[in-house]
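Troubleshooting log. The previous structure file for this entry was overwritten by mistake, so regenerating from the original sequence record. Sequence copied from the archived sheet and checked twice against the printout by T.R.
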Amino acid sequence: MFNKLESIANSKSPCTPVLGCHISRALEPAVVSGEFVTSRVNWVVQSSAVDYLHLMLVAMKWLFEEFGINGRFCISIHDEVRYLVQSEDRYRAALALQITNLLTRCMFAYKLGLQDLPQSVAFFSAVDIDRCLRKEVTMDCITPSNPTGMERRYGIPPGEALDIYQLLKITKGSLEKGK
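Regenerated output below.
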């Protein structure tokens, strides 16, 4: 994989493999020769991550609209995306996120010339479902300012972290409402 990143960074006009975003002309190899390779490789990684996020947002919006999932994008933090979803649609939204990741990974693999997509990267290890924003869905968030935790003090139970198999079982493998 690093060889592919480096070949993109050293190409005549470096651009991200999927959406084709170009690097600043100031960092093109013709201008800097063999200099700033680390910065250019980092640019490929970071800009591709932005492409990945944009594709995920578009795919999720499409699936939400197509299947009547009542939710919307809330925030992106580093490598996480958060959605606000009506409680009865939470499992369908989580399955939509898994499908979105599969579609996005496939697009990247295809554009990079990779003919195989291992299942271990096709799906997220788990999708978190929770009623509040916390680091981990199973943490009760006991802190000096909240010594009794979320469940005892506010009645907020732990959330769920569901893998693709659990989501397929719960949703019967469908994004359709009421299946």
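The chain has a mean pLDDT of 93. Archived copy saved in two places this time.
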